[in-house]
Amino acid sequence: MFPALRRRARRCMAAMRGYKVYAASAALASIDLVPDLLNATAGVDWTPLLPEGWGVRAAGWLAVARLVAPIVKARLRKPPADSMGGPR
User: Fold this and answer.
1) pTM for this one?
2) Burial letters for 60-73: b for 16+ Cβ neighbours within 10 Å, e otherwise?
């Protein structure tokens, strides 16, 4: 990682010290929201909104993301296997 970027990230994390819980819950809420947003954009025609040739590409990537998003969401919710009942 770049030193300047690392410094900036540390400063940002220090400033957010009391808000980390809210930021984490907002991040999880946005992860929950992504599959629904992708399903809502399934019927959108992207060709008039994007440059020529990019509409099909964008629709293809959105279709792949629509298939992958629920899988990623399910894997993020499951705790790791060794954390279930193991010694502490």
Assistant:
1) 0.52
2) eebeeebeebeeee
